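User: Fold this one for me? It's Prefoldin beta-like protein.
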Amino acid sequence: MDALQARLQQKSQEFQKLQADLSAAVEARQKLDAQLSENELVKKEFDKLTSENTVYKLIGPVLVKQEQAEAKSNVNTRLDFIRSEIKRLEGQLKDINTRAEKKRTELIEVQTAIQQQQVPAA
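Assistant: Here's what I get for Prefoldin beta-like protein.
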């Protein structure tokens, strides 16, 4: 019985760790979604610019003039990076969910074994 209790505790700790990993990944995904929305908004604004418009970049407390093509390129590069990070995180979330489901099943199996041992003793 003590071996089963130890297994139950171990599986429970492993499951809690997976839940924490899942929570962290979801939080990271939400931050990336916010960054994606923000950069898509900037891209839409850039699409409205004409060649006469001036673009400035904030560097510390100073606005520095920047070439439109460079600014647009920077935003497109950022969007590509954010999308690839979202894709990577989606895979990570899927993996964590799969492992958590497996761990949940293992937990239930150990709990069931403990309950079955307790029934004859009662």
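One thing worth pointing out: The two ends are 14 Å apart (CA to CA).
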